[in-house]
Amino acid sequence: MSSASFPPARLPLPRELLLITDELQSPADFLLFRGVFAHLKDTKNARCVVASVSGDETIWRAMAGKMSVNYAQCLASQRLVYLDAMAHADVGAMSPSLVSLFRALQDTLDAQLSDPDAPTLLVLDDIAALEWMGVSELEVSRFARAIYALCRKTNAALILRHHVVTPGEPDDLLRHLLQLCTYHLDVFPLSSGRSGAVHGQIALHTGPGVAGSHKLITRTAALQYRLTDSGAVFFDRGTGGGVL
Amino acid sequence: MSSFRRKTTSKSSSVPTGTRVSPGSTSTIVTSTGIPSLDDILGGGLPLSCSLLVLAPDAHSAYGELVQKYFVAQGLAAGQRICVIDSHAKDFLAECMWTPTGTLGQTAAADEEEDERKDEGDAKIKIAWRYEQMKQFRTTVPTSPQSAEDYCRVFDLTCRVPESVLATARKNGQIIELDVSSGFDSGPRKILGDLAGILADDAKETTSPKPLRVCIPSLGSFQWGDVSTQEICQFLHGLRTLLRRYPHACASVSLPPHLCLESWGGSGWIQKLGWLSDASITLSAFTADPSLSAMFSSHHGFVHIHSLPSPHTLLPSSDKFSTLRGLSSSGENNLAFKCMRKRFVIETLHLDLEGGVGDRRTTPATNTLVLESAVHTHGATPSSAADGSEASTKGGAAVEVRIEQLEAAIDTVTVTEPKQEQPESAFKKSKAKKKVAFHSDRPDLYDF
User: Hey, which family's this protein in (chain A) (predicted)?
Assistant: First the structure.
């Protein structure tokens, strides 16, 4: 895939799960912002639900302004719903459960179903932090599976973001998510460290048993990107494209 | 009068004391950590509503605590409010550094003069004309100019904060001390609850409350009870959520040394901590590894950056504006810190001259001096080697033990032998110039 056609349009499609993994040196926030705001701009009746575990609404508001989306208007018209996941998940309990968070998401998605033709996108940001804060791996992976089932039922597309803290050694939760996903966007830093011109690299893999309609990108031929104030510029490796 | 007028922002007057607008984003207000070089790395300072995590995994030093003390001292000096969360908050506050007595500008100037004097020796070296006009090479950022003194004061590690300053600050309600280990239901959750109460009260009182610095010198130390990794994660996550809700506060947190290691928190622990705080750096001191301190003798440890604050932007403002990291021009610089008698600085780390040799060899090569001394002692040493017993009776520093004398004699023989030859070889070298000739008729083509 060339840099011009990235990120591919219509990724993920309804009833598909796109897993985005990133590392501390190369956070994938820009892909989430792009995914949500491009979806909202795509069609007039598009709807989006963002459930964030460790993010905050301030940056969503700030980035909406930069990507020319009227955030307040979207909120008022219920086209965009921002949900603080931690308000519904009591991780401090003896045996933390994510059932209440699931119910909250279910209610929100059901409310969106008033217009069945409206393309709906659900974004669940930072599923890894739930595990770090004491929710058992089993509970988190069950939750992910339940959310995906919910999305298929309600004809919604799902984006899950997971942080990789041990590059090269996928943990159990990541293995489970990889089994579940339709596509996997793999964002990773340059092996040579931070650079002023290149902020990281992106590879696109397909999930198991999926005949992908999008052209995949291997890790060895990963696309590189540079962050700007209002998004990212993608380019092929090397000095091609007149970017560097 | 020129028709061009400089645009002045009306916001500059409304910024609270000791803060300024971030160079990267007008909606972000930053405050100083008290260390100019750390401010530079953070992109101007620590933004309000953000948390900074300083990890210092070395158990033999307390650089993490030192950074916290700078953070508190700067808050006191700038007239901001401070909340120290620790069981020994009083002692911690009393140990903070302070600005040197006398006017601030003078001391800063005096310090710089001292540095210049040190460099005078180097300045005498004749520099090639094409490099003479170049700016002097700097490894760190200068201390704040006088106009910005309120933003970041110049602290002196040899000065302690006066009792009177602390007493007045306590009287004015500038200092809040939260005891960690009070009562049965103590622990991270209760502390977060207390802090939420304080912040909510602030927000209730006025619409634009004074900035509050939350300082936690050792989160998870024994005073906090038996904390697990999950509790630390929950606390950091909760703290960040609180700060976002009440954006007039910022926090600086340190962990005790043993909690800063992956051996305690499991694999990926440092990365997890980095994700759960806005900015996180590691100060890994050399004290545990003598080979490192020998290699980088002018520094005391490495600085590793894990994450940097960007509360309103995609790109941390540090990427654009940090001089020390130097990302605007090329790849990221390696950073190291050193703690001098008066201040703590973070610098760019370079290999020394001649690939890692500690001292500068710009003076005449040392081997010529050695040769001269060898020439002088040439006559005296062989005689002592030949009849050691005589030398010992004549010499002022006589050694009584005979076996050692013999050994010493053997040593001197082995050492002096090459010395006898060296002057001759040096003499030869200076006389005969190297010649390279090409002979086509010989089997070995080059003749030297």
Answer: Belongs to the ELP6 family.
- The predicted model scores a pTM of 0.81
Beta bridge pairs of residue B249: B212
Contact A129 B328 (CB under 8 A): no
Question: Exposure of B203 by Cβ count < 10 A (0-12 exposed, 13-18 middle, 19+ buried)?
Answer: middle
Whole-number Å distance between alpha carbons of A93 and B231 = 11
Maximum alpha-carbon separation in chain B: 100
Nearest to B332 among A58, A62, A193 (CB): A193
Q: Which candidate, A140, A129, A133, A142, places its Cα nearest to that of A93?
A: A133
Count of structural domains, chain B: 1
CATH number of the domain that residue B339 is part of: 3.40.50.300
Range of the domain at B190: 21-108+140-348
User: Quick one: average pLDDT of B163-184?
Assistant: 88
In a domain, B88, yes or no: yes
Q: Say if CB A182 and CB A193 are below 8 A apart.
A: no
Q: Are B241 and A227 inside 8 Å of each other by CB? A: no
Write down all domains in chain A, each with its CATH number in brackets: 12-181 (3.40.50.300)
Q: What is the pLDDT of residues B370-429, one digit of tens each?
A: 444 444 444 344 444 444 444 444 444 444 545 555 454 455 444 444 444 444 444 444
Cα separation values, A177 from A17, A208, A237, B100, B294, Å = 10, 11, 28, 57, 47
What one-character-per-residue DSSP string does B187-212 give? SHHHHHHHHHHHHHHHHHH-SSPPPE
Answer whether residue B313 is part of any domain: yes
Considering CB atoms only, which of B25, B233, B314 is closest to A132? B233
CA–CA distances in Å: residue B338 to residues B156, B284, B343? 14, 11, 9
The b/e string for A45-78 (b: 16+ C-beta within 10 A; e otherwise) is ebbbbbbbbbbbeebbebbbebbebebeebbeee
C-beta atoms of A229 and B315 within 8 A:
yes
Residue B132 resides in a domain = no
Euclidean distance between CA atoms A70 and A49, whole angstroms: 16
Residue B311 included in any domain: yes
Contacts of B312 in chain A (CB under 8 A): 58-59, 62
